[in-house]
Specification:
The structure is a single chain. With 459 residues, this protein is of the alpha+beta class. It contains 12 helices and 20 strands. The radius of gyration is 22 Å and the shape is globular. The longest helix is centred in the middle third of the chain and has 25 residues. Strands 1, 2, 6, 7, 8, 9 and 20 form a 7-stranded mixed beta sheet that branches. Helix 1 links the parallel strand 1 and strand 2. It folds into 2 domains: 302 residues, FAD/NAD(P)-binding domain, CATH 3.50.50.60; 112 residues, no CATH class.
């Protein structure tokens, strides 16, 4: 830069105030904003896209995973575990034809949604709750008082910069952006290595009845298809880096939702979406893989002979990036052994789902569930800040279970209550008893019940 150059933005800056500021409009952010607003506080939600949905819509994960228990009994009926806000949102989508009935996913079930229905339901629920929504708005700096208190953010818009001052701020960015901006401790994956992103896409023109008759009701396709992929790769006819693929019939006629790409760097690294060059490489490689898998489907899968790619995610789906360092950490063994917490504010029976190599590894918790404690969303350092969503404080493998959509709805539901409680009672988030939040969730129909007698105590 020339020594006479200056960095500036001469557009007028707008300054607004709010009780609760939620940054990020994914499942957790939407749930947090609506829940807090329902408690009578003024809520503002910032979202960088022109719609809500986060990984579920922009990343096109396309399913509400984590709603049901897992069972080893073949053909066992869906046993719903998660209630409260997640169930309310699902019911609203189902009512407008935007959600399938439960579909088999290995040892459990999932729900497949129409991304337009997701956006419309979120818009309506946010409006009904009185949340102020600012789309196409990106938080770029935090307002930090005394090096510890997050007092809001400065955000970029096409109109100019906004300074948004808040009594309490919720980091629902998915990437712990605000915690990182404030200089608070964060963690990234396993020694800095994260799970690879994926480019999810949809194909139209499918004879879904014939497809299902050929491959069965399980959306995780069987060994015959995996072997076919391996053999065709070996013969040099395709470049399909992942052999175990997930294909979900969607609410739209003749459509499959396709979760099958495996995106790594040209150098073989797992790409990290908080690194701009990695994120860029992932988008380009993801689109290449979509074309290759779609060609394989047309050539070799029954019912897909006349299919075409209808759409891809607006961005690659991000499984893991940066997380807060919380006052508690959800441990790998908590997930594997079904640990319960007196301050548990959400439940999950979703498997540890590790995507590495040609085949994802699923580790199931059968006929049981674990709980996620409130303290996993309270930064170890910093005031007036809470996290919500997949940037929770968790070990690497625990994160591979706890990150999915139904649980993110539950986290937002809890953090919305905690934010309103903190303001109403003039408490710091770290002073709030997670058991009190659990009680509020139960009054909302979350069905968490009383804290179990056998729990791991948060130190």
């Amino acid at each position: 830069m020339n020594s006479n150059s200056t960095i500036t933005d001469l557009r007028p800056r707008e300054r607004i105030g709010t009780d609760v500021l939620v940054v990020g409009g994914g499942a957790a952010g939407v749930a947090a904003a609506i829940t807090a607003a329902r408690q009578g506080v003024k809520v503002t939600l910032l979202e960088r896209y022109g719609f809500c949905g986060g990984g579920a819509v922009a990343g096109m994960s396309g399913t509400i995973c984590g709603m049901y228990m897992a069972s080893d009994i073949p053909g066992a009926n869906p046993d719903q575990l998660v209630h409260g806000f997640a169930a309310e949102f699902a019911q609203r989508m189902s009512a407008c034809g935007g959600l399938t009935p439960p579909v088999r996913y290995g040892k459990t079930y999932s729900l497949v949604h129409d991304p337009l229905a997701w956006r419309n339901v979120a818009d309506a629920m946010l409006a009904d709750a009185g949340v102020t929504v600012l789309f196409h708005t990106l938080a770029t700096e935090v307002l930090l008082e005394g090096g510890e208190r997050v007092a809001g953010v400065q955000a970029f818009t096409k109109q100019g910069k906004f300074q948004i001052e808040a009594g309490l701020t919720v980091d629902a960015s998915g990437d712990a952006d605000l915690a990182a901006m404030a200089g608070f401790a964060t963690r990234i994956g396993h020694d800095g290595t994260v799970q690879n992103p994926t480019m999810i896409f949809r194909i139209q023109g499918v004879d879904v009845a014939r497809f299902t008759a050929a491959y069965g009701p399980d959306t995780i396709l069987g060994e015959a298809v995996s072997k076919q992929i391996v053999d065709l790769n070996a013969a040099g006819r395709y470049r399909l880096p992942r052999a175990k693929i997930f294909l979900f019939p969607s609410p739209r006629e003749g459509e499959l939702l396709c979760n099958c790409t495996r995106i790594t760097g040209a150098d073989g690294r797992e790409l990290n979406s908080i690194l701009v060059r990695d994120f860029t490489e992932a988008e380009i490689e993801g689109r290449k893989q979509v074309s290759e898998y779609a060609r394989f489907f047309r050539d070799h899968l029954q019912g897909c002979e006349r299919s075409w790619v209808n759409d891809t995610g607006v961005q690659v789906g991000v499984r893991q990036s940066r997380q807060i360092a919380g006052t508690a950490v959800l441990a790998n063994h908590d997930v594997m052994h079904g640990t319960k917490f007196a301050t548990g504010i959400a439940r999950s029976a979703w498997p540890i789902e590790l995507h590495a190599g040609a085949r994802p590894r699923l580790s199931w918790l059968i006929d049981d569930y674990y709980e996620i404690p409130y303290e996993c969303f309270v930064p170890a350092r910093g005031e007036s800040l809470l996290a919500a969503g997949r940037c929770l404080s968790a070990e690497h493998e625990a994160m591979a279970s706890a990150r999915v959509t139904a649980q993110c709805f539950s986290y937002g539901h809890a953090i919305g209550h905690a934010a309103a409680l903190a303001l109403r009672e003039k408490l710091a988030p770290r002073q709030i008893d997670g058991a009190a939040v659990r009680d509020l969730l139960n009054r909302d129909g979350a069905g968490l019940g009383v804290a179990p007698a056998r729990v791991r105590v948060i130190a």
